Amino acid sequence: MSPASRKRVGVLISGRGSNLQSLLDAAADPAYPAEIALVISNRPGAYGLQRAKLAGVPTAVIDHKAFPDRESFDAAVDAALRGAGCEIVCLAGFMRIFTPGFAEGWAGRMLNIHPSLLPSFIGLHVQRQAIEAGATIAGCTVHFVTPDLDAGPILAQAAVPVLPDDTEDSLSARILEQEHRLYPAALGWLAAGRVRIVGNRALVDGATAAGDLLSPRPEGL
After folding, report:
1. 1-106 homologous superfamily
2. Is 125 noted as a catalytic residue in this protein?
3. How far is CA 136 from the centre of its chain?
4. What is the pTM of this model?
5. pLDDT for 129-146, tens place per residue?
6. Phi first, then psi: what are they for 101, rounded to 5°?
């Protein structure tokens, strides 16, 4: 795939950036339909910034504490993304909630990965929520970002079992393995122009059934 045909992606992080690394690794393949053009952190010390620099990707720190309100912070992030020519935005452990205007400005072009099988268990500590609820299956979801928290059209999901002796940490680790497989696959589908949003559903052209979007084989599409 020629560099000119690859979609430019901005990734927003707040921490260690393990999902960022999975996207960087995927984008290192010239045949992948997306390139990581910019990594933005709202926390100056986020380790994910080092991952981006090692991959030769430009970075920016936009500290939310330096802004008087959410609107001005969002405006600064938006300006940085557009200044870098980003066409798609991926949230990868970004611990800020956007204003409706920002989400609407990137509608259909902004993805998030959430460590539960949405619409179940939104918000924080979702693995603990799953264990406490007695769930036997957990997992992760890649979805489009909308003004409502964790409520946008679901693009892809991967499931894992909840084992009898699971702790929040052990279940989180098992889910994270699937996140690292699912997020690059979902971004690739979007960047390749294979995704259509119909109502509150995200459909992938070429998928033979909804099961094709589930663990264990997102790369099979």
Report:
1. Formyl transferase, N-terminal domain (3.40.50.170)
2. no
3. 24
4. 0.91
5. 999 999 999 999 999 999
6. -60, -40
Is residue 18 a known part of a binding site? yes
For the chain, percent helix, then strand, then coil, each to nearest 5?
A: 35, 25, 40
Instruction: Report whether 196 belongs to an annotated binding site.
Output: no
Q: Report residue 14: phi and psi, to 5°.
A: -130, -10
CATH class held by domain 113-221: alpha beta
Tell me if 181 is assigned to a ligand binding site.
no
Q: Where in the chain are all domains bearing CATH 3.40.50.170?
A: 1-106, 113-221
| Per-position DSSP letters for 51-82, written without gaps between them | HHHHTT--EEE--GGGSSSHHHHHHHHHHHHH
> Of the listed 64, 114, 125, 143, which one is catalytic?
114
Using alpha carbons, list the distances in angstroms from residue 121 to 2, 132, 145, 153, 204. Answer: 40, 11, 16, 16, 24
**pLDDT greater than 80 at residue 117:** yes
Give the integer Cα–Cα distance in Å for 60 and 129.
34
42 is in an annotated binding site: no
